[in-house]
Structures are given as C-alpha cells and as structure tokens.
Amino acid sequence: MAFDRDLQPTAAVRGNLQFTHSGLVTATYFVQPLGYGLRRGSDKFDVKAAHHALVTSLPDGALLLGIQARLNTLDVLTKMVEGVDLDACEDYADEVVASFERMRAIGPRTRIHLLSIPVGAGNTGISGLARVWRGSTTAVDATAISRAELDGYAEKANEILSRIGGDFDPVPVPASLFQWLWEHYLSRGAVGDPVAPARAGALDDATAAVFRSAALDEGARTDGNRRLRPSFVPVIKVVQPDFEYRPSYQAMLTPHSFPYSGMVFPGGSEFLTVLEAMENVTVDWAMRIATRPADQVLKNNELNLRRLGDQMDQRDQEVSFAQNTLAAKAQMLGEYNNHFEVNSGESEISFTTVIAVGGPSREVAMDAVNTLKRRYKRFQVELTAPVGAQVDLWSMFVPGSPPRRAFDDFAHIVPSDMWAGFVPFITSQVGDDSGPVIGVNLLSGNFEPIHFGIMEAALHDFSASFAVTGELGSGKSYFLKLMAVLVHDMGGQFLALDRSQVGEWEHFAGTIDDAVVIDLADPVVSLDPLRLFDPRIAGERALDSILPLLDLSPTSGAGAAGSSLLSVKGMAEHGIRSMLDLYNTVRRLRGAGELGEEYADLAARLGTIVERVPVLFDPDLPPLRLDAAATVVRSHKLALPSAEELTTPHLYQRLPLTKRLGTALYELVGVAAREAFLSDNGRFGLLVGDEAHHFTQTQVGAAVTSDFSRDGRKHLAAIGLASHDPATDFQGAAHNLIPNRFVFRQRDEVLARNSLDWLGVDLEEAPFLLQVLREETAPPVGAGRKVPEERRGEMFMRDALNRIGRGKVLGPARADRAAAITSTPTAARQTVP
Questions:
Q1: pTM
Q2: Diameter over CA atoms, the chain
Q3: Nearest 5 degrees, angle CA 442-CA 444-CA 445?
Q4: How many CB atoms lie within 10 A of CB 815?
Q5: Residue 613 vs residues 228, 502, 673, 696, 744: alpha-carbon distances, Å
Q6: Do 168 and 425 form a contact (C-beta atoms < 8 A)?
Q7: Cis peptide before 266 (omega within 30 of 0)
Q8: Chain segment 99-118, per-residue pLDDT in tens
Q9: What sign does the dihedral 733-736-740-744 (CA atoms) show?
C-alpha cells in the first residue's frame, strides 16, 4: 500500500501558493472554461486559438485539471435568491424551498477547471530535509515566508498569466481548495465525496496537517483471500482509516495511442468531452504539460534525420521491410519538420493525460472503464489502464507532485496547434450565473441547473427579453406561463395576451392574487389612447392606431385633418379628451371651412367603427390601468390577419375591417404595456405575446418589440414572444435584439431548419442536429403518441452570451404552481372584471 505522506506533496499553503516538501512552489487558479456546446465552427476556432496561446505560454510542469463534483444544493438555492427580497416575495420563497428536494433528487454535478503552474523553488534547507524524511515531520511555516518572497512568486505567476491572456479569466483559489481536492481524490465516486466548493473565497493559509491520511491499495488486494498472489486488476482501493466512509475504487486510464492520421477539428479532436454523462461514477481528468520551442525542435529533427540516414545506410543491402519502415519514418520526420519551419510561432508539446474513474465498488468502476474504452474507439483513441502504474498516475492529479517515471512513459508529443484542438477548457453551460432555475442542462451530461435571471439581467445591463418557437403542443405556452409566474413571484408584474379559445391564461391567472382578466370583445375597461396616455403623447398614440385602421395616410387630406386635431394644441382648442370627443368634433366640423370635406371623410370613416368598438369609444368604461400583478387580455374573439396578410402588400390592402380592428386593438395593448412597463416605477414588467407576428410584422408592433428589446434593461422590463416559424415572425428587433432564444420540438423539416438557423446553429457543420430536433426532442411515443413525463420540456436554447445548448424545462417546483400552468381548461370561463 502507498500512504498519503508519499503522495501528498504539500508542506504549506499561502493563499493560492503551494509550498511542497521537494521545494517546488506552485500557483493554482480557477479557470473559466470557454463556451463551446453547439456554437458555430468559426467560434470554435476562436476557442482553439485561445488554447494555443495558453499552451505556448505555460511553463514545463504545468498541470491542467478537470474535476467532476457534486453541486451543493444550498449553493444552487443561494443563486436562485440573489437580488430577491424574500421577505417581500413569499411566493418565491416557497418556490425556492420546494426546489431543495427537487435539486437533491436530480443530483446535479459540475466540472471545475483548474490550472496549476510552477512559479519557483522554495527554501533549499527545507527541500533537503524533505528528501531525507519526506512527509513525516517536515513542514513549511507559512508565517516564516517573507512578503518579498510571496510578492516574487506572485509576480512570476502574473507574468505567465499575462502571456496567456484573459480569455480564461484565471482567479486565485483559496487555500481550502487544496484540502477539498485531496478529500475528493480520496473519495472519488464514493459516498464521502465532498460537494464542489461554491466559488473563489478569501485567500487564507493551510499546513500539511489538514490533509487526511489514507491507504492506496493498488490491485485491491485486500478484497481477496490470495494475498500472496499479486493482483493484476488495474484498480486502486482507497481506504480512509480515520473515517467510516466506504472505500473508493478508482482506475487510472491514459491514452496509449492517438489516430495515425490526426484528429479533425472541430468535431474529432475534443476527446475529453467523451468523459461526460457517465452514470454512477465520477470521472476526472488531468494533463501535465511540457513545451519545447521551435528552434530546439528543428535541431532535434536534424539530429534524428542523421540517425535515420545512418540506419538506412547500414541496412542498404538488407532484404527486409526495415528499409521501407525507415523510409516512412524519414518522410514523417520531414513533414513534421516542415510544419515547424512554415509555422514560426509553433512549439512542441509533450503532454501526459490521465483519466480517473471512481466508483463505490470495483465492479462499477471497471464497467465504467470498459464503457469509456468503447466510446474512445469512435475517436480512434486507444485507452489503457496500466498495471503497476496506477498509484503513480493517481498522484499526477495532486498539484505540486514531483515527476514520476509513469508521467514520461505515457507522454505524447504533438505540435502546439494540434494540442490546441483538444480544447480541454470548454463548457456546455448555458443560462445565467444566478436567477430562478428553469431547467437542467442535457448537453453537458451533468444535469447542471439552468438559471435564467430575467429580472437580474436588466440590473447587469443585459436584455432580459426572450423568444420561443416550436410546434403546437411542444411546450411554448407552458414556458411562457412559467416565466410569467416566476416574474410575478419575484415581485414583478406581467401582461399576457391570450389568444386561446379555452382561455388557458385566464385559468392560470385565477390562481394569482390581484389578477385582472379583460375580454376585448366584451370589455369592462377602455383602451382609448386619449384617456390612457398623457396628453403630450396621447394624440400620437391615437394616430398610430386609428390611421392604419381607417386606411388613411398621415399626409392625406383626412389623415392630415385628424393629425391637426390630435396635436396638443388641437386637442386643447377643441376639448378633445377621448376618442368619442374626436368623433363628435369631426362631425361638428364637417362641411365647414377649408377642411370641411376632409373632416366629412374622417367622420364617415370613424362612423363605421364607433358602435363596433366600445373598448375605444364607450366613455363609461374606466380606462385600463396596468398596476395589477397580473393582467390577461383575451383576444380570442378578435379577427386577426395572418403573417402572410401582414407582409404581402396587396393582401394587406384587402384586409377586412374586422381584422384591421383586431390588429389595432392588439397593438394598443402592446403600446399600453410599453408606456406602463417602460417607466421607472421600480417594478419589473413582462409583456407576453403568443402571436409574435402581430408584434413583429406591423409598424406599431415592431416599434413596441424594439423598445422592449432595446430599453427594457434600462426600465426593468422585458418582452416574451412565441411563434411557430421564426423565419417569418422573428424579424427586425425580434431577430437582432432578443438574445435569449428557446426552440422546442419542431417536426416539420422546413420549420425545424428555420428554428435552428434562428438559434445560430450551422446545419452544414452539424446536420445531425436537425434530426435531434425533429425526432429526439420530447418525442411523442406509444399508441397515444404522447410525450413521456420524463421527456417533456426538452429544448434547445441560446443564452445572453450567445452560448447554444440543449436542456429540459422543469416547471415550478411548487405543486400548486405546476398544476396551474400545466392544466388546460376545457371551456372558456367567465371573465373577471
């Protein structure tokens, strides 16, 4: 057995600086992985370029780590409540409490990326003592390390980080992370495996005393009865005698060979992504780096070429395959040499990769090892679990570990640009850093919660607006209601336009206190713009609505007459305070003065709608006030034009009056929401529209969408739109300015292509995603063609940082909220005033 004193090199820790028994000093940093997932190839080449700058700037002995760990449920809940006053938002507090058990049941994990770089050598006296009796009583007194020494090591580390650049945003780790890493390694995949540290904390000190003792039994010999017979099972049994945890069984894998013809980037070289989505085990990876500059590589190549020449001369008369083999090696060496001559900025990378698989039993660990070996065959990468080198390879995960023979035995040499194609520091994470949990990440395989900080985004100068697309029954309306109820529970307000015949939003609003439901065909409130808005803007808002409705141009005779009356001066002069006042005024002025004919024309046009639209002309109705927590405007009885009718000029000219009326009222609701929500009232406002083309295809609707998309972040407001076809409905501001995009199941091929293109996916690079969206996203199965409960809510998404991923919407954790947005009434309900 090997004990921790042989494998734990740390003598003392001062902040993120580690002082080892051998005298080495390292600096360790959290690394921010770069967004990858389903982004376009051009973006992935930018990620590769960042990794090239990284590897060519690292000193020999640098250690890259990707550590998989369980997420702390309390950390997830903490992120959910950032920026929310729970005392004032009891509904959201109940949602967070209900989320606790759900997160525990899901058991999400994450991958922590770390970079450890050597920055110098410690006290030689300590180093000499350590060589004599390493790990027994040797210790470095952190308080005895001078400030000048610490500053020198920090300066060296900063110099290296400066060469790397800021793409990976390195953050110094706290001293406690070294202890966490050690305990994670001892319990990898077993019951005692600690949860991931929340985030970078205060820099502090630690000594070797904080590291637990453990025994590493290579071959798990203590499990068998034949103790005198050596075990050839490539597994390590890790036992912690001071704790009652069950042992951890771990296997160390390393690539034995890579494809002879190379690995194509992107898509064929990112071999570390294969490690995700492994069940019942924890899988970590470590990579130790050494670099060699191009001029040294060229000199070595010349020397190797001479040796090959000598060997070929010696075997010139020999009849065997050796001559052909030597010739092939010479050709490969020539190509390798030419690569460095052409690319002056290249360097040679020697790297050793170790993949650690840990589980609660030997059987589980070995099953996972065999699964990984099968997966890697697709990359033409052969994995091996070398017997006798398991503990040495295990030690490579520990920052500051001295070099061991196994590190060199399993090293590979490649040019730096080829190594950069491995892109080890990448992530499939999507969503925001905080906010309510709307679902889990499916692309990463770790089921990390997806946070959508819709109300926090505005405070961080991001647009919180979002758009959704998908076929009927795919989950669009469910998602819209989810976002609406979250906004409400966090203290905001929302207005939703309900086009459904059964009144699903009205049914949903019935579960919310202080909710108002309005039926535009049987109104209990007025949408008269002259009564809704301030007199300084009321006239303009009225003109925007009634001129298209009456088929009038602002510069035509009747249009100009109406514009004159609805100016601030005209309204004051004629006492116009409502749309009915406007109608009575033009009736009085018709036939009189120079504009008599124009007033008569305007009066005739207005006369056709006065009796038909009480929501605009009934003076007894109180004006709409958008101060309720939830407002649902039912428009199911309104005739509305199709997207084709709105975008085709000759069809638009033939629109019947009923559809023009419906469009005008639809726009007025949006304008009213814009005036109410895009004001500094201190309350977040969300406008929800399930018929996106009515907001994006008309001039007024496009202006409303643009204002919410551009200025919502300034006034704590957002717009949420849904559509079947983003190619026609999400144009202009909806396409360019709405960052958060969600795509649910779409089985129609044309619409599926449009949806993925709108999302930002390049189907020429990833054509398989079309099939995934059409057939493998919440697929209906069985005789009834129903979506299984566990598959509902699957979707693609793009977040505010343009990261594209795949996830599953969970819905509210509260049972009553989930029932309210899931159930659909069978008949329209009585409207609530």
A1: 0.87
A2: 119
A3: 65
A4: 9
A5: 96, 23, 20, 24, 37
A6: yes
A7: yes
A8: 999 999 999 999 999 999 99
A9: positive
